[in-house]
């Protein structure tokens, strides 16, 4: 959510930020609504004050037996009582229109975000790890996985497209990956483990920016709750409508949870395999911090996700997303892309974003700096550490053997009974 006061202070800067997002100028329209709302508030306050004043004067006029003045005052009060509800309704309508317009505008990009239209304009920051070499033609995960228990047919039979049933070795590998990620983040990187609600109210999804604009990307229950598309929603809203002590920040949370997405905007993309699912698991990181520390926290969070990839021995690269490829709530985003030898290309496996105070304003989440009376909005950050299904895909493709087996990365072996290889079903 944007602060109308900052738009008043520098409307040109606001429109320049929108232009970098590929959007038309909106400051003039927003300021017209704001000016009308403020004028209505002033008129209402003046009318209410005059009504109270005139009501008191009626008694004084009657006490002095000045019936003409009393009748004039009574007529004025009656007119005000008729006028004020209409003013209140108009003020409410204009205020709601302004709030709705502000709520539909994405966050503005930070100055260091590269300009561009789409993923082709993202900037390479650095690469990590070494791509594996093979003495055979590497296969894609949907060719390797079925013999290990990645059961696409049963998933489709039970639930339709973009659902997969995992059994046997694939199920154990999936569980091992999630536990390894969560252990690494909580044990070695200071995140507090959380188990979150998977069903949330409108206010929570609004707070992180999925509502109102992206309702079609979500699943809704018959009682009006929403299935979370990511644990970011539950974790970030932990601080909604709170005033935190500045010295208690940063807060860092990590959660392994199911995620549910309709993939409404992904028709025709990744329709086979395990890359894009309606239901999947992900380890999510969320940080709540003071504004001065949010840039450093963004680097730290992304480095934590990179550490997991490094421990798994997977080659990856960090990309800084351009203005045209960032999500709605993000002010800057790093994507981590893992190398998939079967596809011979990099694919996104983690997205780490700083949202500055954009989500905090929607949630009314603030902190009080030590020694100060006033409050400020916190900064929120979120990132994947990592998407479990996509990491499973990466392990299958990078550790595949010619005989159809898959070597187990050393970091995962303690979670798999010290097994160093997953054998296909015979």
Distance between the termini: 56 Å
The coarse silhouette is: elongated
CATH fold title of the largest domain: BirA Bifunctional Protein, domain 2
Q: Catalogue the unreliable spans.
A: none
- Can you tell me the CATH superfamily of the largest domain? Bira Bifunctional Protein, Domain 2
Give the helix proportion (percent range). Answer: 25-40%
SS-based class: alpha+beta
Instruction: Evaluate the radius of gyration.
Output: 28 Å
What is the subunit organization of this protein? single chain
- How many discrete structural domains? 2
Give the strand tally.
Answer: 18
Question: Strands across the major sheet, in which order?
Answer: 1-11-12-13-16-10-9-4
SSE succession: HHHHEHEHEHEEHEEHEEEHEEEHEEEHEE
User: Any idea what the CATH architecture of the largest domain is?
Assistant: 2-Layer Sandwich
CATH class of the largest domain: Alpha Beta
- Helix segment count? 12
Sheet having the most strands: 8 strands, mixed
Q: What is the overall pLDDT average?
A: 95
Strand content: 15-25%
Short synopsis of the structure:
This protein has helices at 4-9, 11-20, 27-63, 67-103, 141-144, 152-159, 168-188, 202-208, 232-236, 294-311, 358-363, 388-398, and strands spanning 123-128, 150-151, 165-166, 192-193, 199-200, 219-220, 226-227, 243-245, 251-260, 279-289, 316-320, 332-340, 345-354, 366-368, 376-377, 379-387, 406-407, 421-422. The protein is of the alpha+beta class. The protein has an eight-stranded mixed β-sheet with strand order 1-11-12-13-16-10-9-4. The chain has a three-stranded antiparallel β-sheet with strand order 5-7-6. Strands 8-14-15 form a three-stranded mixed β-sheet, with no helix packed on it.
């Amino acid at each position: 959510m944007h602060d109308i006061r900052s738009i008043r202070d520098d409307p040109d800067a606001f429109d320049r930020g929108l232009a970098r997002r590929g959007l038309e100028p909106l400051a003039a329209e927003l300021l017209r609504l704001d000016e009308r709302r403020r004028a209505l508030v002033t008129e209402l306050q003046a009318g209410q004050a005059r009504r109270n004043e005139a009501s008191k004067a009626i008694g004084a006029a009657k006490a002095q037996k000045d019936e003409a003045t009393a009748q004039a005052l009574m007529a004025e009060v009656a007119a005000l009582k008729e006028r004020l509800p209409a003013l209140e309704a108009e003020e409410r309508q204009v205020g709601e229109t302004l709030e709705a317009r502000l709520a539909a505008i994405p966050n503005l990009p930070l100055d260091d975000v590269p300009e561009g239209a789409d993923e082709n304009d993202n900037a390479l920051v650095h690469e990590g790890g070494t791509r594996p070499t093979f003495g055979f033609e590497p296969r894609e995960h949907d060719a390797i996985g079925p013999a290990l228990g990645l059961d696409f047919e049963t998933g489709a039979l039970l639930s339709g497209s973009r659902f997969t049933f995992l059994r046997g070795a694939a199920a154990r590998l999936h569980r091992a990956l999630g536990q390894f990620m969560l252990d690494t983040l909580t044990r070695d990187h200071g995140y507090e483990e959380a188990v979150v609600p998977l069903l949330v109210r409108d206010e929570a999804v609004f707070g992180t920016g999925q509502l109102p604009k992206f309702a079609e990307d979500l699943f809704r229950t018959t009682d009006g709750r929403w299935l979370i598309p990511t644990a970011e929603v539950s974790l970030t809203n932990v601080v909604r409508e709170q005033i935190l002590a500045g010295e208690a920040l940063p807060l860092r949370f990590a959660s392994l949870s199911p995620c549910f997405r309709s993939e409404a905007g992904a028709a025709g993309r990744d329709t086979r395999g395990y890359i894009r699912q309606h239901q999947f698991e992900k380890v999510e990181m969320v940080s709540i911090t003071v504004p001065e520390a949010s840039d450093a926290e963004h680097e730290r969070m992304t480095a934590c996700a990179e550490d997991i990839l490094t421990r798994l021995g997977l080659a990856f690269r960090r990309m800084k997303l351009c203005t045209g490829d960032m999500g709605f709530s993000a002010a800057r985003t790093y994507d981590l892309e893992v190398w998939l030898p079967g596809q011979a290309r990099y694919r996104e496996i983690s997205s780490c974003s700083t949202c500055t105070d954009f989500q905090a304003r929607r949630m009314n989440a603030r902190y009080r700096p030590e020694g100060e009376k006033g409050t400020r909005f916190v900064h929120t950050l979120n990132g994947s550490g990592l998407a479990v299904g996509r990491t499973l895909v990466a392990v299958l493709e990078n550790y595949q053997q010619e005989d159809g087996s898959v070597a187990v990365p050393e970091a995962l072996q303690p979670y798999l009974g010290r097994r160093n290889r997953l054998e296909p079903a015979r």
